[in-house]
Amino acid sequence: MIIKIITSILSVMALSALQIAFISGLPGWFSSLNLILVVLIFILGFVGFEAAMWWSLGTGLLLEIFSFLPFGIYLISFCLTMAIANFLLNYFFTNRSLYSFLALTALSTLAYELLVNLAAFFFLEAGGRFFLMRSSFWSLVLEQIILNLLFTIFLYYVVHFFSRNFRPEFLIKNKKY
User: 52: Cβ–Cβ under 8 A, 6 or more apart, which residues?
Assistant: First the structure.
């Protein structure tokens, strides 16, 4: 039990460090990838809601340390995003197929970005137009959704390759002549 906890803590720290130090420093579009959110979706889908909430608390806390936003925005945004994703996973997406993970990733990315930007807008007294009215916001969200979806496809097939529990099954109607 203690080894599992230590492994989880080290994994959360490594994931947060990878997001902060490596991915945010990539050039162009690649810096828009939200690796933490994609990994949290997979943890939610394959391990469960409780583990996803613990991971979202850990990664949110580590991101708070290195953020210029007011304390709590990442914690609240990740936790609310996981609650929304859990609701969608339980009541709308009944299986763990690639299409379910793609839809869940796209909707969770949109929810996360709306939550972070809404909280930042209210706490930082942003001047000018509301962030939903800016085309730059929507283009950045679209970039992030595209990158998250591409990484979701990659990660899904990696998980499928290493775990033989997920086999693509095609329902074929028996033809009777």
Answer: 40, 43, 44, 82, 85, 86
Domain membership of residue 127 (yes or no) is yes
Q: Give the CATH number of the domain where residue 115 resides.
A: 1.10.1760
Cα distances (angstroms) measured from residue 18 to each of 67, 127, 156, 167, 173: 15, 32, 19, 30, 46
Number of domains making up the chain: 1
List all residues 6 or more positions away from 26 whose beta carbon is below 8 Å from its beta carbon.
33
Looking at this protein, which amino acid is placed at residue 119?
A
Task: Tell me the two tokens of residue 155.
Answer: 């990660």
Work out the number of other CB atoms within 10 angstroms of the CB of residue 104.
23
Token representation of residue 144: 């992030």
DSSP class of 68: S
Q: Are 55 and 86 in contact (CB under 8 A)?
A: no
With residue 37 as reference, give the H or E element that holds it: helix 35-46
Q: What would the pLDDT profile of 78-90 be if each residue is shown by its tens digit?
A: 999 999 999 999 8
Domain membership of residue 172 (yes or no) is: no
pLDDT digits (tens, 9 = 90+) for 41-59: 999 988 999 999 999 999 9
DSSP 56-104: HHHHHHHHHHT-SSPTTHHHHHHHHHHHHHHHHHHHT--S--HHHHHHH
Whether 121 maps to a domain, the answer reads yes
Q: The whole model's pTM is what?
A: 0.84
